[in-house]
Amino acid sequence: MTFKTLTALLFAVGTLQIANAALTKRVACPNSAHTATNAACCPLFDVLDDIQQNLFDGGQCGEEAHESLRLVFHDSIAISNAAGNVGGADGSIIVFDTTETNYHANLGTDEIVQLQKPIIARHNITPGDFIQFAGAVAVSNCPGAPRLPFFLGRPAPTAAAPDGLVPEPFDSVDSILARFADAGPDGFVPVEVVWSLIAHTIAAADLVDPAIPGSPFDSTPAIFDTQFFVETQLKGTLFPGNGAHPGEAESPLAGEMRLESDQLLARDSRTACEWQSFVNNQAKLQNRFIDVMQKMSLLGHDQSTLIDCSEVIPTPQTINVQATFPAGLSITDVEPACAATPFPTLATAPGPVTSVAPVPPS
């Protein structure tokens, strides 16, 4: 009896494995060396090659990659629960670019929109899908980044997003948290707001202070690491009156841009401990960014109606680095904000104090 039962179980397991293998059978992509679990994903390999060659300079984590990630946020967050959840990750910032790129919060996005438009025109892909796909590919070019999920099938947008839905760096913490809470049917809780700002580890600003274009938000803008969460916690102040520098705070590192919103969120009791928790925690940095970017990419859409084509996104280069205090600085330069947990112990980078180089234009 026991032998018969075991045989039956083994047969059932084998049948299940065969069934699963059949369900995941790959298809050959036409005129390509690639295969995919879903034939609908096959055209994305051509889009990937086009993006890497003609937008990201052969697969670099440079200005266009940073701006493509920024465009994901500016397109996706433009949805309001209070206004009926119309919009979101639909590509309206490209289709209605003459309207949306002129919104104050979106100034500067016109350049990346104009670079992406010709690529979209060469392929059978909607603007909403392209923005999300290009953003995920952009992140994959940055060493240390996670491989972001990508879902295909967003319809074309029917109208421009309303103005006033994209948070700005001079907004108060209350205003920023309220705006995120209103984005989509479920909204974003304060810790998820922090997760979304992981994007600033590979980012720079051109128009917050036009006198210093390409100013990075941390000292390693081409590496997806936790250095951003160290450097925003270093002592710094808002510019007096903030009249000449709206949205900008003072960083102790020459050449580095600190946004007023980052300065305040890193020190607010609702977000400070989550902010600090990323210091030297690369695994958490990657996992939480995957979570928040997937949620962002699905704003305005039902995931069950989309096709999972995540396998087309390249696997990023891994890194093995430890966060440090910048040269010449130490724990005495930290402005502690998390009452529950002391700031992590870090080494100081060797060498003389240097300024942070701007991200060069393409």
Task: Tell me what the structure shows.
The termini are far apart. The strands form five sheets. Strands 1-2 form a two-stranded antiparallel ribbon. It has a two-stranded antiparallel sheet with strand order 3-8. Strands 4-5 form a two-stranded antiparallel sheet. The chain is globular, with a radius of gyration of 22 Å. The protein contains 13 helices and ten strands. Helix 9 crosses helix 13. 42% of the residues are buried. Residues 5-22 have low confidence and may be disordered. The protein is mainly alpha-helical. It has helices spanning 2-23, 43-54, 63-76, 92-95, 97-100, 109-121, 127-140, 173-181, 190-196, 227-231, 260-265, 272-277, 282-297, and strands at residues 27-28, 35-36, 151-152, 204-205, 215-216, 248-249, 258-259, 307-308, 324-325, 347-348.
Indicate the topology.
Layout: H1 2-23, E1 27-28, E2 35-36, H2 43-54, H3 63-76, H4 92-95, H5 97-100, H6 109-121, H7 127-140, E3 151-152, H8 173-181, H9 190-196, E4 204-205, E5 215-216, H10 227-231, E6 248-249, E7 258-259, H11 260-265, H12 272-277, H13 282-297, E8 307-308, E9 324-325, E10 347-348
Parallel strand pairs: 9-10
Antiparallel strand pairs: 1-2, 3-8, 4-5, 6-7
Helix pairs in contact: 3-7, 9-13
